[in-house]
Amino acid sequence: MRPVRELVRLLLPVACPCGEPDVLWCARCDGLLAGPPVRVEHGAPRLDRLDGVAPVPVWALTAYTGPVRDVVVHWKDRGRADLDRLLAPALRRAARRLAPVLAPAGPLAVVPVPSTAAALRIRGRDPVGVLARAVAGGLRDGGAPARVVPALARRGRARDQVGLGARARGRNLAGSVRMTRRGTRALERTSVCILVDDVLTTGATLAAAERTLEAHGHDVLGATVLAATPAPDDRRRARPATATPSGEDLGGT
């Protein structure tokens, strides 16, 4: 079998997104996703509510820098659907660790943040939906009842967020997230929701999703993402404290 594998690698070379040859992903990139989830909402200015309410808690596996950024870009936009087998289990493990924190809230609706229709057409699939299923599975593994509810969709006028600054992201997403008919039927009258996205940057996308759900009477307890862009004042500091299985961690940072 070894000569066959070597021939396949010669004809169809593989490499980790970071550049390590002959592996789908390397031990280093795997290790960057192995840690506990950390609170990151303090670094997302567009999550500020401006009404006296603390920003929604957001947990991430790691910082969106270096090799992690390469992995996510290849996974989302360069056809590396095989990286589902790296990213989904990592997020499932993280969700299992968060389950004791979230379980007291009762049944949870895991709501994926919607992509634009154009992005879905180009990619031919819904990567965030993969993550949402992983989060729901991890919460159930940890004893928190959870199910995926694709309750949100993008309105037509919003364009992809890549390359936009903080203010432009906010303007682009203003009023651009709506409830779907399926979501309206699937959610209870006052559901408790967990949002899921791939990367947290300014927080504009999560804020738009949070506002839409709250406008329909639902509570957004928190959000989970693969990675978060470091806040400017955090780039020279160590990672923030990890989440602990205590209800106190649901408050502000």
Verbal overview:
By secondary structure, the protein is of the alpha/beta class. Helix content is 38%, strand content 16%. The strands form two sheets. Strands 1-2-8-7-3-4 form a six-stranded mixed sheet. Strands 5-6 form a two-stranded antiparallel ribbon. Helix 4 (84-102) packs across helix 6 (127-141). The model is unreliable at 4-11, 164-170 and 238-253 (pLDDT under 50).
Give a quick precis of the structure:
With 253 residues, the chain is α/β, with parallel strands linked by helices. 38% of the residues lie in helices and 16% in strands. The longest helix is centred in the middle third of the chain and has 19 residues, at 84-102.
